[in-house]
Specification:
It contains three helices and 40 strands. It has 504 residues and is mainly beta. The N terminus is likely disordered.
């Protein structure tokens, strides 16, 4: 009997080896658990091997073994020497994971691990299964590798021929029949009895699964035994979900976000389409206007009433002298309404009275002048002056092209040295076309000066002093006359404008 059992075991192992060689010839990687026949020792060593290894940097495999087996320890094998093996912390579980990982590919073949089990006391065959999850085994390019897996087993022979022969007298013992297999005697290792149609220990599958829709019931699916094709459990009905999501508008029903069909009713209060203004009226100087009523273009419904815009009233700011002043009387000046209604307004042009040449005041060179917004100037000649600074509170300044004093108009032709230096409040300035020269450090360290408009075309390297624009805002924007753009870009950079300053 021993010889026959040994011969059968050898045949089984040879068949498995033949199968593995066939797979290896196709080029696929193989990881297998040996089928081991227990010896006289109290423990059984079960090798886990790899064949046809094309190079791996990581692997996670799952070992699942018979409930009757006890795993004592796990040893590293000769293969995977460049990978680090991580063993499970708890060996009492009947399903464990072993992990290998490393920085470089390992293409070695052979034993990657040895599972050390306690030898079962009863004779029989005990399964040791191996598996892996998708993506659990990766190559040097971090790409998943498909691996062929072969399960193993531990076979424990009967203690003696006499014990085996006793089955013929006393009957077979132990083992458990399934829906497709008879029980295996734990004494002699032979099948006996009948299959158990109620014991479905193999894999199961779901059939007749039906997903519930918005309008139709579904089903979780019936559970079938894959081994004997028997229905084990009826599926459960899943109620129709009903339509969901979407939003109705004044002209359209809601569209279900699940099935894409319309449902319900339109919503006359939801105007999500375009709108338009009707009954818009512009306010004039004497009549109120209206912002216009808002209407839904889709359904024509008024959504919102417009608001009244109060009459503007006349506005006069652009007065022009009527040139009717005399040496004894101020003249008048006239402006048309800024709103464009055509209405005129005439007022006294104070200070326009002409000076009698014989009575003309003597003007001193250096006489200081100041306009209404705080721009300060000094008389430099008969009809010329220079800008010497600013004392106003506004951060936006426009230097006037001229100032009028004692009936005489003085053209502003220059900006004095350090005129605006260290002015931290100055953010914007306009330099008029009358300017011929800009003194050194005129705008030195005006850190917040971001916008400069230069209208004069007369500036040059000789007429603009050193560091005139040194220390202005790093990202300032300077607008210059188009014809002088190229020359001014070079000039202003040379006079202190930073690299990030835009000159256009």
């Amino acid at each position: 009997m021993k010889k026959i059992y040994t011969l059968i075991s050898c045949l089984v192992l040879a068949i498995m080896a033949l199968g593995m060689n066939v797979n290896a010839s196709t080029g696929s990687t193989i990881i297998s658990v040996d089928k081991v026949v227990a010896g006289e020792e109290s423990s059984v060593r079960v090798p886990v091997k790899i064949m046809n290894n094309e190079g791996l940097v990581g692997a996670t495999i799952t070992i699942e073994y018979d409930q009757a087996l006890t795993l004592q320890s796990i040893d590293s094998g000769d293969a995977f020497s460049s990978l680090t093996m991580t063993k499970p912390g708890d060996l009492t579980e009947k399903k464990i994971n072993i992990v290998w990982d490393g920085m470089e590919e390992d293409s070695s073949n052979g034993v990657i691990a040895v599972l050390n089990f306690s030898k079962p006391k009863k004779a029989g065959s005990y399964d040791v299964k191996i598996s892996y999850e998708d993506g659990g085994i990766i190559d040097g390019n971090l790409q998943p590798v498909e691996v062929t897996m072969y399960n193993g087993s531990i076979t424990v022979k009967g203690s003696s021929e006499g014990e085996k022969d006793s089955c013929a007298v006393n009957g077979h013992k132990g083992g458990k029949a399934t829906c497709i297999k008879k029980a295996v005697c734990t004494v002699c290792g032979k099948e006996y009895g009948e299959v158990d149609s109620t014991n479905h220990e193999g894999e199961t599958e779901l059939r007749n699964v039906k997903k519930a829709t918005c309008t139709e019931d579904g089903n979780t699916g019936d559970t079938y035994c894959k081994s004997c094709n028997t229905k084990i459990k009826e599926g459960t009905v899943i109620k129709a979900t009903g339509h969901k999501g979407g939003k109705a508008t004044c002209i359209k029903k809601a569209v279900c976000t699940v099935c894409g069909k319309e449902y319900g009713e339109v919503d006359p209060t939801n105007h999500e389409g375009e709108t338009e203004l009707r009954n818009v009226k512009k306010a004039t100087c004497t009549e109120d206007g209206n912002t216009g009523d808002t209407y839904c273009k889709s359904c024509g419904t008024k959504i919102k009433d417009g608001k009244v815009i109060k009459a503007l009233g006349h506005k006069f700011t652009k007065y022009v002298s009527d040139n009717n002043a005399t040496t004894t009387k101020d003249g008048t000046k006239t402006a048309r309404c800024d709103n464009g209604c055509g209405t005129k307004n005439t007022v006294v042009d104070k200070g326009s009275k002409k000076t009698n040449p014989s009575q003309s005041p003597k003007i001193k060179i250096g006489q200081k002048l100041q306009n209404s917004v705080g721009v300060r100037c000094a008389i430099t000649g008969k009809n010329t002056a220079e800008c010497i600074g600013y004392v106003g509170k506004k951060n936006s300044v426009t230097i006037p092209p001229s100032l009028k004093y004692m009936g005489v108009t003085y053209q502003i032709t220059s900006i004095k040295t350090k005129a605006f230096s260290e002015n931290k409040n100055l953010r914007s300035i306009v330099i008029p076309s009358s300017i011929r020269t800009i003194g050194s450090q005129a705008f030195f360290n005006c850190k917040n000066l971001r916008n400069i408009t230069i209208k004069t075309p007369y500036l040059s390297k000789k007429t603009v002093g050193a560091k005139a624009f040194k220390g202005i805002h790093a990202k300032a924007k300077i607008k210059v006359p188009k014809k002088q753009k190229k020359a001014y870009q070079k000039l202003l950079k040379a006079k202190g404008a930073g690299k990030k300053v835009t000159i256009k």
